[in-house]
Amino acid sequence: MRMDRIFKSKYFFTCKIVALLIVFSVSGLSVQAQISANADAVTATQYSGSVQDQIFIFCGNKGETKAKLQASTALTGTINYEWQKYNTTSGSFEFYLSQNDGGSSHSISSLEDGAYRVKISNGTETETYTAWVFNNYYEVTATITESNCEYFQLEGTFESPVFNYFDLNTGQALSVNKEIEIEWKQGNSSVSKILSPRMYDPPTKDTRYTLNVFDKLNCGEKVDVDYTSIVTKADFSISKESGEAPLDVSFTNESENGTPGKYEWFFFKEANIIKEEALKNQGKVDSIDFIAYNDELTYTYEKSGTYMVKLVAKHISELHTCTDTVYLPDPIEVDTSFVKAPNFFTPNGDGSNDQFIVKFWSVKSIKITIFNRWGKRIHQWESSNVEGFENTVNTITESVWDGRIGNQMANPGVYYYVVEARGRDDKKRWSHGFVHLFRDK
Q: Which end of the chain is flanked by fewer CB atoms within 10 Å, N or C?
């Protein structure tokens, strides 16, 4: 059984090495302790007998022999230290080196893996102790082997030695369980605990991933790999969700990692028109009204109705064109045209309800006429270019009746009105009826 057998894996992960000295004990077994070491970890053998030896683990790089042992004694006089190394082929200990008058302690360094035995003697008394040492290391690599619009593949390899030792009572081969763990991290967040994870839903920003490979013996290594994003995430916001026609809506592009000039805005036909066409054509319908190729834009909805919009973002790289699509969460509601007139008003100068005001929405043309009880027209206003009731009231005073006929105050009483309009949905809207004029209210 070769002591330099190396364990290799095609998978990866990373760790932060913490240089602690951990001592593992075997319940009910006696462990000799006159050999010590400033090791990264200490465990005990699993011999068949009751007396166990210590196993010292030293973390380092491949090819390094950092192992070092120190033997100490309470014997007095001229002390001789004779060190021996275990021969795995013959199954016996062979001379390694000796030191006369070594004092109360003696150390050996730059040790290769294996078992070392020391005989300490002052000429009359002899003490014998044994310990195993292993030089532990990790060589870790991390790469991205595939990257497309759906996922990217993280891959890595690590190399680390397998620690084999022998039961010195029976010669049976044993091994140290290193309990190797693997973890991929993005910053402080763990993203996977397998060596070759496939990462779906790639990030839209260049991202660094860290592979950690570590064990319970406090040894390990970490390595970074950078993912260059080739994907995009479509997103946008709108300035208005509803209102009367004509309704100006600004579309703000909030996509991530898209290629400028490669955005596509799909404006759908009005919802009822889509339903009508679907019924007429047995479900077959082209629901798209038009496509715009702007990074951002403002669109005016001239007609009432319910409208949907979607945005397609693209990221164009050397090998791929990745796209992402987002729909408006809720449709844009453009108010249906209507007209409404009051049934009374009080032009008494108190600042409340002093005018006869016809309310209308989403209307492109309107005509308002008022008659007295004898059918004589006393007020009229019309326009073929109206864009909103509030603006009309504020800017075109002729659109309302202030209760005057010429320069004279009209008499209190009942008058008749007629409102004729055409909505931006091309529907005719009209209203007619009586309105009461009160002066003392």
A: N
